[in-house]
């Protein structure tokens, strides 16, 4: 059973910052594209950002310029730095490891709430 362990969610005020981390087994982290998805109540799960093993990144238009995804290859961790957050960023955020069809793994999710 592959475990992706997320941390860093919580309550943050609009305009603030939050940092999400996801630790993966080394065997997964070295080979898989890592990403963050989110799902707000009543909405479909959507891609927030992902990063390939060489470090190429991809972002949803709604978070470009505000969020940064990175890989810590020493700690086998993918990080999502969230800056200038907005109420519409409120969602459960899920870590994902992807290599192909039916070859991916999900974390348990961490709640991010943006509210004053």
Question: TL;DR?
Answer:
This protein has 116 residues and is mainly beta. The chain contains one helix and eleven strands; from the N terminus they run βββαββββββββ.
How does this model look, in words?
- With 116 residues, this protein is mainly beta.
- 3% of the residues lie in helices and 51% in strands.
- It has one helix at 26-29; strands at 5-7, 10-12, 18-23, 33-39, 46-51, 57-59, 67-72, 77-82, 91-100, 103-106, 110-114.
- The strands form two sheets. Strands 2, 4, 5, 6, 9, 10 and 11 form a seven-stranded mixed beta sheet that branches.
- The chain starts with a strand and ends with a strand.
- 29% of the residues are buried.
- The model has no long low-confidence stretch (mean pLDDT 96).
Structural class: mainly beta
Helix-strand string: EEEHEEEEEEEE
Helix content: under 10%
Rg is 13 Å
Mean pLDDT: 96
Q: Which word captures the global form?
A: globular
Give the distance, in angstroms, between the N- and C-terminal Cα atoms. Answer: 39 Å
**How many strands?**
11
Descriptive key words:
mainly beta; 11 strands; 1 helix; 116 residues; seven-stranded mixed β-sheet; four-stranded antiparallel β-sheet
Summarize the SSE layout with pairings.
Layout: E1 5-7, E2 10-12, E3 18-23, H1 26-29, E4 33-39, E5 46-51, E6 57-59, E7 67-72, E8 77-82, E9 91-100, E10 103-106, E11 110-114
Parallel strand pairs: 2-11
Antiparallel strand pairs: 1-3, 3-8, 4-5, 4-9, 5-6, 7-8, 9-10, 9-11
């Amino acid at each position: 059973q592959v475990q992706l362990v997320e941390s860093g969610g919580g309550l943050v005020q609009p305009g603030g910052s939050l940092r999400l981390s996801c630790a993966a087994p080394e065997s997964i982290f070295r080979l898989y594209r890592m990403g963050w998805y989110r799902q707000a109540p009543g909405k479909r799960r959507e891609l927030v950002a992902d990063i390939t093993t060489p470090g190429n990144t991809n972002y949803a238009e709604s978070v470009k310029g505000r969020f940064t995804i990175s890989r810590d290859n020493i700690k086998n961790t993918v990080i999502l730095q969230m800056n200038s957050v907005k109420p519409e960023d409120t969602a459960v955020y899920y870590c994902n490891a992807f290599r192909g069809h039916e070859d991916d793994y999900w974390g348990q999710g961490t709640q991010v709430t943006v509210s004053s």
